[in-house]
Input
Amino acid sequence: MSALTGALGSEVGRRYRANFDVAHLDLDPLLAVVVDGMGDSDGSALAGRTTVDTFVEGITAARGKLGPRSIREAVAAAQDQVSEIARRDVGMAGCTLTALLAADAEDAEGVDATLWIAQLGDSRVYRFRDDLLELLTVDHTMAWLGVAHGLYPLDSPQADAARYHLTRYVGHAARPEPDVLSVVPAPGDVYLLCSDGVAEQVPYPRIREILRLHIEPGAMVERILAAADVAGGQDNATAIVLRIPF
Output
């Protein structure tokens, strides 16, 4: 993974007074994280920053023994910290958490995986491979459940309202666990981690069009964030693009 290239970018957009997305990117070993605070309160800002710092610290400490259990423990530690924040008078304290990280060279739990995805909320991980753009994560929202099970159409008012009803997130009273997925990358893969300010504003064809370009990850990030702004800039928008070398 030493030749992996990547870039991170984030924009406030036109709606909010500040950026409540928080992101982190290390390339060697890979540790990419996108967190989206819920709302625009001080609690949202504190939850996002605390979650990134706690998760990164937990994953870094687990290197050499990293696996599904230690990834869940890092998320649980973030849940603990955000629960403490929620006890203060700072507004709603909650956020999403989406991460893509390199597995240890020799996985301590005997699992054959090269990359791990951790998912809690509605930020996303996409993979562009062989001219196909796939969504690798599931949105933890009532909109996702409702559309998937035919309760209402994707473009209905019910689905639009349900997008704001998260079923899992950091700070939830039930302390839900994240989805933890293993992914084996292939040469030439391009991965996109993004907050819903990208996913909900930039159409699938435009994301695919950008990720198939023969340009550096930083230029892809610039185009993705510009596309979110052109679409209205109605949310903070964050993107991390990673390219596996040929």
The first helix runs from residue 42 to 62. The chain has a mean pLDDT of 94.
